[in-house]
Automatic annotation (TrEMBL):
Record NCBIfam families: sensory_box (TIGR00229)
Entries under Pfam families matching the protein: HATPase_c, HisKA, PAS_9
Keywords on record: ATP-binding, Coiled coil, Kinase, Membrane, Nucleotide-binding, Phosphoprotein, Transferase, Transmembrane, Transmembrane helix, Two-component regulatory system
Membrane-spanning segments: 27-45, 65-89
Residue ranges constituting the PAC domain according to the UniProt record: 179-229
Protein name: histidine kinase
All residue ranges annotated as the Histidine kinase domain in the record: 254-477
Coiled coil start-end: 220-247
Source organism per UniProt: Clostridium polyendosporum
Catalysed conversion reaction: ATP + protein L-histidine = ADP + protein N-phospho-L-histidine
PROSITE patterns the record matches: HIS_KIN, PAC
GO MF annotations, alphabetized: ATP binding; histidine phosphotransfer kinase activity; phosphorelay sensor kinase activity
Enzyme Commission identifier(s): 2.7.13.3
GO cellular component: plasma membrane
Length: 509
């Protein structure tokens, strides 16, 4: 850009030097007048002096004096002609060399402007009067002269026309300086491009004009937008990573607490039994022994539940969680779970009500995984519903799908937490002083198991009024598989699963 300005300035200086040569009209007229005055002075003065000296003093005849005067005049004319010739020749030679240099410079700069990848334009009276080949290409014209037929307003976006006017006025008022600007130009085919323009005031054919160098920055703008978007995405990703790191830190604090609490209880009972064996004065009745055994069993179940959840969530993340699909009556499966949990709910002062629109609905599912999903939701409802509350389990039939609803009249979920309860390691109450235990991976595992069945899970909740989970499962039948009832040992297995899943349903303090 600076080189092009320097070249243009050199051309202007060269033209200025030519205009200042002594052969311009005023200088030539002055030279002629001075020459005439000197000649007149020389003729009048020298003739009188010469005649006086030759004729009156030296007494030379007049005819000789006339010859001398003619010789003097001839000598003066010859000398004057020689001097004038040398002066004119020198200046003509200088003019010739300057014109040659000017022509060479103009050809060189014209070639340079033609080869420039950026568009070079001249604007006069709100019209383009010159552009190079790059300018024609920029505006999508076949030839550079085609641009002259289009007013500037047709080639610049309307909302930029006023800006251009203001900039032209600014150029005239700021000693020809033009700030670097970015505009949007309209090409001949109607497409809009982003350009960068650098301009300056310029005299073209004696009239004020605007010389501009225009560079297409459309691709640069695209890259800038991509980089800006990538930066925003990376910033968002960084924020998510920081949040996830914070959540993981809370999770490890909670999981440590989860492991430590049952282990402390088991260790305390073991230590008590050990002391009773070593000290004969400490008597443990069979009833107390049963209580201690039950307490250890429950806390072993708690540890087992926690370990199972950690293993299964890890398998789900790595897509190694195996599914054992068979055609089961989903209604009977969920009813058995609900009725089995009803006794546990009753011991907590809660009512559990099961209802269904159909009595039989066979579909392909993994019975073990469905039991874990329902038990986890029921466990949450029991933990977070106060005495006197009610838990509802309903099944709705939609022919090609079923919806299982688990609803309670518990404490509900805050609005700022409801969108995150299925996220990994998230707990509504993540403090170590919460009323109920929980690792923050139960609902995340439930979501993974439901999605493994091709289903969806959602939740609605109102604080202090209750929460309702909806599980929508597609009804599919495995071809070639018979419709199976639950295994003979399913009751015993279910009781054990209930003991494991509901093992942390009690207050810590």
């Amino acid at each position: 850009m600076n080189d092009k300005k320097s070249n243009q300035k050199a051309i202007l200086n060269l033209r200025g030097n030519l205009s200042k040569l002594p052969c311009e009209k005023s200088t030539a007229l002055m030279i002629v007048i001075i020459y005439a005055l000197i000649s007149e002075f020389w003729i009048l003065l020298s003739d009188k002096v010469l005649i006086k000296v030759l004729y009156e003093i030296l007494h030379i005849p007049m005819e000789y004096i006339t010859i001398a005067l003619i010789a003097k005049g001839t000598t003066y004319v010859v000398i004057s002609a020689i001097l004038l010739y040398l002066f004119i020749y020198k200046n003509m030679l200088k003019i010739k060399n300057l014109k040659k240099d000017l022509k060479t410079s103009e050809e060189r700069y014209r070639s340079l402007i033609k080869l420039l990848p950026d568009a070079v334009t001249i604007i006069k009276n709100d019209k383009y009067i010159f552009t190079n080949d790059a300018g024609a290409k920029l505006f999508e014209f076949d030839k550079s002269k085609q641009i002259f037929k289009n007013p500037i307003k047709n080639l610049i976006r309307p909302n930029y026309s006023k800006l251009l006017k203001a900039q032209i006025n600014s150029t005239e008022n700021n000693q020809g300086k033009f700030p670097l600007i970015e505009e949007k130009l309209i090409r001949n085919d109607g497409t809009v491009i982003d350009v960068e323009i650098r301009s300056c005031k310029f005299n073209y054919d004696g009239q004020p004009s605007i010389l501009s160098v225009i560079r297409d920055i459309t691709e640069r703008k695209k890259i800038e937008n991509i980089l800006k978007k990538a930066l925003e995405e990376n910033k968002s990703l960084l924020e998510k990573m920081i949040e996830l790191d914070k959540v993981k830190t809370e999770f490890f604090a909670n999981i440590s607490h989860e492991f430590k609490t049952p282990l402390n209880i088991i260790f305390g009972v073991v230590q008590l039994l050990s002391n009773s064996i070593n000290d004969s004065e400490i008597k443990i009745t069979p009833a107390k022994l049963n209580d201690y055994t039950a307490l250890m069993r429950q806390n072993c179940y708690r540890l087992l539940r926690l370990i199972n959840n950690l293993i299964d969530i890890t398998k789900a993340d790595s897509d190694f969680l195996e599914m054992n699909y068979k055609n089961y009556n989903i209604i009977t499966l969920i009813e058995n779970i609900s009725l089995s949990v009803a006794e546990y709910a009753k011991n907590k002062g809660l009512s559990l009500i099961f209802d269904t629109e159909v009595e039989e609905k066979f579909m392909a599912c993994d019975a073990d995984k469905i039991e874990r999903v329902i038990l986890n939701l029921l466990s949450n409802s029991i933990k977070f519903t106060k005495r006197g509350g009610t838990i509802y389990v309903n099944i709705y039939d939609y022919e090609d799908s079923i919806t299982i609803s688990v609803k309670d009249t518990g404490i509900g979920i805050p609005k700022n937490k409801i969108d995150k309860i299925f996220d990994r390691f998230i707990q509504v109450d993540s403090s170590l002083h919460r009323e109920n235990e929980g690792s923050g991976i139960g609902l995340s595992l439930v979501k993974s198991l439901v999605e493994k069945h091709g289903g969806q899970i959602s939740v609605t909740s109102t604080e202090n009024l209750g929460t309702e989970f909806f599980i929508k499962l597609p009804v599919k039948i495995l071809p070639g598989e018979s419709e199976k009832l639950l295994p003979n040992n399913s009751n015993h297995t279910l009781v054990e699963k209930i003991q494991i899943e509901l093992s942390d349903i009690y207050s810590i303090y």
